[in-house]
């Protein structure tokens, strides 16, 4: 039986601003099992990064978790003391952030930054921690690690800095790695190297990974299961095959149509999703995609549940309500469009 590592239940996160309460995450629920790689995708502002930071207890003022629960190995993370958070964060759950230049201290040597983490969590002596840092840098493909530990972040390229961040995250042998857009600022060649590195590390250690990205191509390469977010909510969840070949939500369909296809050539026409994401200070009471959805109908002013489409495949869409005959025409239209989306 697969071991449940992380469970997020009805998570709600808000940020209080001068204009009102920004409801960044609205009732998000999902799980991550030991050893699996889960992708969280969606446009900017969909709540992906806020969800990851909430898991690590990094939501600070003006933000606040206003509802729901996060459990790690069955234990609720709500109300943990600072001491318990320090023992969990960076040790059992680690995170790689989007921009390594802002995550690394520019005035401290790489080795000092790495050994500080290792000594705090693993209780090693100074020389043992330094050797562990060297070994981790070598493991992530950084040449001459004995020399590199004495250098500063500005002496590394963007791709090398991201490798350093991954090495730091792995230095305490975490069970769960949260990777927030780890390849966004890198060129295509370096992106591929970082993704290959993550896959190699996962295969060696059986570590679970939550990969947060807006790039469906990255998801296809690395993940086994996908969560699609929009407007602070989960629109769809399923395996990579479900999402790419059997998408159940019009938003997922729109994302797929806007991605270049292999062999499409320079004349390929991409179809953007018309309109803009919802205002989360005053979000729609029904489906958050209602204003942009070409298949919206009267029922969409009510918030739909997540309908089960198959084992582990769910979509938050009234088109999937088998008891709602008014959705039939729209569902047929969606099925017709879907025929070209996953190719």
From TrEMBL:
- Which residues does UniProt assign to the signal peptide? none
InterPro entries, A to Z: AAA+_ATPase, ABC_Ni/Peptide_Import, ABC_transporter-like_ATP-bd, ABC_transporter-like_CS, Oligopep_ABC_C, P-loop_NTPase
Q: Which terms under GO biological process does the entry name?
A: peptide transport
GO CC list: plasma membrane
Pfam families from the UniProt entry: ABC_tran, oligo_HPY
Q: Which SUPFAM superfamilies match?
A: P-loop containing nucleoside triphosphate hydrolases
Q: Where in the cell is it found?
A: Cell membrane
Keyword terms of this UniProt record: ATP-binding, Cell membrane, Membrane, Nucleotide-binding, Transport
- Membrane-related topology note: Peripheral membrane protein
A GO molecular function annotation here is: ATP hydrolysis activity
Q: What PROSITE patterns does the entry give?
A: ABC_TRANSPORTER_1 (PS00211), ABC_TRANSPORTER_2 (PS50893)
Superkingdom of origin organism: Bacteria
Residue span(s) of domain ABC transporter: 6-256
Q: Which NCBIfam families match?
A: oligo_HPY
The similarity comment for this entry is:
Belongs to the ABC transporter superfamily.
Q: What is this protein called?
A: ABC transporter ATP-binding protein
Q: Which organism is it from?
A: Cohnella herbarum
